[in-house]
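Thread: quick sanity check before group meeting

JM: Hey all, I'm pulling together slides for Thursday and realized we never actually wrote out the predicted structure for the chain we discussed last week. Dropping the sequence here so it's in one place. If anyone has concerns about the input, flag it before I start.
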Amino acid sequence: MDEKTLLKHVGNMQQVASVRQVVYTEGRAGGMKAYEVKNGLMRFQVLADKSLDIGDFSYKGINMNFLSKPGLMGRNHFDTSGQEALRSIMGGLFFTCGFENICPPCIDDGVAYPMHGRIRTTPAEHISADAYWKDGKYQIAISGEMREAELFGENMRLRRTIGCAYGEKTIQIKDEIKNCAFRTEPLMLLYHFNMGYPLLEEGARLILPSVKTTPRDNHSRTESCLSMDAPLDQAVEQVFTHELKADANGDTFAALVNDRLQLGLRLTFNQKYLPKFMEWKSIASGDYVVGLEPANASVLGRLHQKEEGLHMLEPLETEEIVLEITILDGIDDIAEIDNHAAQLIKA
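JM (edit): ok, ran it. Output follows.
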């Protein structure tokens, strides 16, 4: 619907699309700043105090993200200390892991590196949020800057923009990561996308252009890594590394679909800066989740990655990474993504 026609139906665009700053007032989320976005049938929450990651996400009133047992929370003084990270990882649609470490905590040369790194709990500054007409589309955009830095240590800057357009089913995440220090720095990076009930239920399945799957450990040796089972009390989490095929430009994807609901989510990214992809699966009762995780480093963490070689950024060097989240709505969307995976695998 064009601007003129749409404005005949609504006197204020906030009736159908908006971005609003909010502050939560109770519990572990008390004092946390965020932005609530309404984009037609899509609703989501951008967490200003947690790296502009996306928390709640729903479409047509159906929740699609995972929320861990501690629930919505802001930054806590203990949340990057070793295994204490498990008490602050709330899930959400995605959280950003890095930059000095991803996955398990470790001590390297006497320095402690927390689980999934520190950037996921870094609050944003220089934040802007806007909604406006441009090129015939009503655009919503949120942007800001996060910095991971230490006196006499690293100085890494992340500038992020999250955008979408009214009437469309795609959210774009555009990240610019710059080494602002005057020494070469490692950059470990993982985007931790987390799908939950009711999108995730028994029979939901992953669609991946995967040509090789490697389980992380003996608990992950199963034939059902691409399909979801019913919840099972005290089940152990599973992690898999997938080798994905990409097109000629390096673009690839991962998707979760629920054929019963005829809904799904597709994550699109480029392998230039995100050459690795991991799947996190838990059918444990109360911890029921599947994670889609494009990354530039091993799921085994910093110490293992050092053996292969850490990805490094030179002084003042910048990398730009773009990811897109697209809702799959209906059997035609699902059939198209099934076919796309098959074509990539054949190529």
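AS: nice. The longest helix spans residues 331-346. The chain has three helices and 25 strands.
JM: adding both to the slides.
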